[in-house]
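As a next step, we paired sequence with structure tokens, yielding the entry below.
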Amino acid sequence: MSRGIESAFFGALGSVPELKTAKSGKPWTSINVAVDTGEEDAAGRSKAQWVRVAVFGEAAERLDGAAKGTRLYVEGTLTLNEWNAPGGEPRHGLAVAAWKCERVGSSAIGRNKPKRQQTGNGRPAVQSADSDEWRGAV
């Protein structure tokens, strides 16, 4: 069964994650991830695209204690969130509901390494987000 538009990317954590608890008791967090676009501005600095990400369950727990700038690998479903700004004008933005979010590189060594679980078909198991919990979370 399709999950929708899937996205996978590497990036850097924009701020320290704040772990929250959903009504169901499952942990979750909303983070911003800076993804290098491969382009440079006029001053020669790398340009980044910011991606809003909602992370759930064990993946969210593994982010607890991560520092700003921590390198991450994210997999999830692209979602469109819509809301009204304080002035009443409609707004919308893309976000990712992540089923996988892992620290990579030196920031992952010895800390909260993800558990690799296999499904019956030999592929890594992924955690699906409950759609009622993540809508509007990012």
